[in-house]
Inverse folding.
């Protein structure tokens, strides 16, 4: 199964769980962390988790999240959080991360001393690895490799992703198209947050297409697990080229046409979908 969660989906997942009064499980947290792409996203994820009032298990903080902290002060803060009720456990990765983020060798040596106080014995050679983003990335990749192996072993990620899809569908099932359009067009007064916005845009494009590809005008080739026509959302002006994530700039395409439009980049296709996007704006919900 081809799964890839992006940051918007991850933040939405956390919010939908919160709505259902569920606390994310360790594997769910690991999966979300696995799909985060940079430190900025890690911070958004961590902030959302805290906003939702979850106290993350040390198992997750000290063995997973710590590898993705790329700022010295924030690493210290994480260490405090980990050790607030628990001084006996030996979390060596936390001190290693602190060393890798240290600005000087002196600071790194101090961390080795500090670690001893917690019963964590680190080799003095660690001090040579201060200020090493390369080593941090290496360790992040190693963590991801292990997670990926586990994923293949126990097939857990598809299950988690299914749970998320189910929550997402349940959420959108109760939201009429008009509401989505309203939220998306009242840019300033909108209640929806930045991340939900992009999820809303995707939902808008799929809803407005009514199950018909907006390039070849044929019905979706199959239905997804929830019984909805399978179409992909395409940004007419690519986001990477400054296109906006807005109603004027999206259409829903069948997988074939989606490939075609990216691959051939034909002017005629471009014009057609642009026209469709305009017409969409004036369409009303079923
Ligand atoms: Zn098509
Ligand atoms: Zn596309």
């Amino acid at each position: 199964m081809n799964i890839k969660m992006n940051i918007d989906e991850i933040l939405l997942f956390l919010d939908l769980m919160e709505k259902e009064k569920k606390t994310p499980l360790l594997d769910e947290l690991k999966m979300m962390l696995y799909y985060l792409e940079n430190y900025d996203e890690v911070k958004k994820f961590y902030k959302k988790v805290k906003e939702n009032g979850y106290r993350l298990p040390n198992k997750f903080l000290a063995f997973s999240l710590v590898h993705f902290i790329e700022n010295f002060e924030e690493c210290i803060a994480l260490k405090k959080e980990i050790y607030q009720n628990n001084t006996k456990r030996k979390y060596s990765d936390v001190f290693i991360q602190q060393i890798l983020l240290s600005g000087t060798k002196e600071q790194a040596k101090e961390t080795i001393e500090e670690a001893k106080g917690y019963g964590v014995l680190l080799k003095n050679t660690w001090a040579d690895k201060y200020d090493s983003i390369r080593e941090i990335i290496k360790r992040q990749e190693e963590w991801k490799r292990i997670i990926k192996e586990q994923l293949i072993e126990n097939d857990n990620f598809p299950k988690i992703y299914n749970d998320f899809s189910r929550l997402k569908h349940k959420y959108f099932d109760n939201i009429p198209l008009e509401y989505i359009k309203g939220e998306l067009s009242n840019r300033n007064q909108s209640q929806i947050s930045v991340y939900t916005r992009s999820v809303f845009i995707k939902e808008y494009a799929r809803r407005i297409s009514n199950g018909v590809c907006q390039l070849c005008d044929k019905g979706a080739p199959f239905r997804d697990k929830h019984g909805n026509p399978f179409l992909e959302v395409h940004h007419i002006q690519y986001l990477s080229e400054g296109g906006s994530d807005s109603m004027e700039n999206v259409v829903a395409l069948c997988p074939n046409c989606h490939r075609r439009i990216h691959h051939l980049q034909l002017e005629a296709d471009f014009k057609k979908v642009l026209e469709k996007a305009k017409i969409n704006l004036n369409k009303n919900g079923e």
